[in-house]
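Bumping with the actual sequence this time:
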Amino acid sequence: MTKITKTPHIVFWILIPIILLTGFLKPDKTFYFNIHDTYYVLGLINLAVLISIIFAIIGFGYWVIIRLNRRLVYWLTVIHLIITVIGFFSIILIFFSLPSIEQDGFSYNFENFLEMQVIVFYIFSLVLYIQPLYLINIIIALLSKTE
C-alpha cells in the first residue's frame, strides 16, 4: 500500500484504458434516470469517457505534487483513492449489468429501475463528497515542506 500512496497517479492513469475499454464493449448500453419531472439518458460510453477525464485530472494533480517533491497525507490519499476508484467502478458495473430495454419481449421492472437509481445516486454522492479530501490533500502538500 505504501507504493500506491507514493504514486497514486499511476493507479488513476492505469485505470483509464480499462474504463474506456469497458465503455467500448457495450456502447449502446444506456441508463435512464429521473430528476424531478425530467428523464435523462446517459450512455455507458459517455460515462466511461467522463470518468476517464476525471481520473486523468486527478492523476495529473497527484503527479504535479509528486514532481514538486511534496509529501501527501497518507490517510487522505488512501481514503480518496479507495472510495473514488471503487465508487466509479461500481457505477460502471451497475450500468454494464443492466438489461437493455430494447430487447424484444422484455418487460422492464420499474421497481428495480428505481432501486438502481437510488443506489447509483448514493454511490455518486459518496464519491462526490469525498473529492474535497483530494483538494485538502493537495493544499496540505503544497503548504508543507518538501521531502
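The C-alpha cells above came from a reply further down the thread. The two ends are 19 Å apart (CA to CA).
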